[in-house]
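dumping this here so i dont lose it
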């Protein structure tokens, strides 16, 4: 009983549903891991999470597809993402720390269990990769290993703190990197939705158009 109450308190804190200040990033990630791990440790709870997550994902399928593989080029794939990372991002949308009208509205309506179950469901779906130009992909691999591998990992599978980029929508990669680059260069137009990341902005500001194209080609073809 004590552990269940503790996990529920963590959910209230981490998903922005209490009036208390948010924990530091490191503690936040540890708390999210606790939530996910508890659900996955129990086979019955895991099965129920998958069932409930699939049902709730129907609300997301218009953009993200039935299995987390996006049906819109500018919308990210959720399939194969780390469940802790997904849960963290849903929380950011619920709190307004990430801006998207549809996602902000949905995330606020989801219950605590909805958010956990969605993260678990999408994390266990298979990403559909897209073959790309080999020469362009090779150039993208060189850039990735120089500038991106330390956070997103050798295979670009991400972690609890960083997004999986392998198999991601190429148009979404171009759009997101372009946005970070504009932020880093101070070129973002006032009034447009802004996703901020000091690390990504410092890296993306040094990328030119060819670099972004190469990275998108390399990453979208990775399994």
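and the seq i came up w/
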């Amino acid at each position: 009983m004590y552990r269940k109450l503790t996990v529920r308190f963590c959910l209230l804190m981490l998903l922005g549903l209490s009036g208390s200040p948010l924990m530091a990033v490191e503690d936040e990630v540890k708390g999210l891991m606790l939530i996910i791990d508890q659900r996955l440790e129990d086979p019955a709870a895991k099965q129920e999470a998958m069932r409930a997550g699939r049902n709730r994902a129907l609300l997301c399928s218009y953009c993200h597809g039935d299995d987390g593989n996006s049906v819109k080029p500018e919308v990210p794939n959720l399939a194969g993402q780390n469940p802790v990372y997904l849960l963290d991002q849903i929380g950011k949308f619920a709190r307004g720390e990430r801006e998207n009208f549809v996602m902000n509205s949905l995330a606020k309506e989801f219950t605590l269990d909805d958010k956990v179950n969605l993260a678990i469901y999408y994390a266990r779906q298979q990403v559909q990769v897209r073959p790309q130009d080999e020469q362009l992909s090779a150039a993208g691999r060189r850039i990735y290993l120089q500038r991106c591998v330390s956070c997103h990992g050798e295979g670009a599978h991400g972690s609890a703190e960083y997004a999986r980029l392998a198999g991601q929508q190429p148009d979404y990669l171009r759009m997101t990197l372009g946005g970070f680059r504009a932020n880093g260069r101070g070129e973002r137009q006032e009034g447009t939705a802004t996703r901020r990341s000091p690390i990504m902005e410092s890296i993306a500001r040094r990328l030119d158009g060819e670099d972004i194209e190469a990275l998108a080609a390399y990453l979208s073809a990775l399994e």
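The two ends are 41 Å apart (CA to CA).
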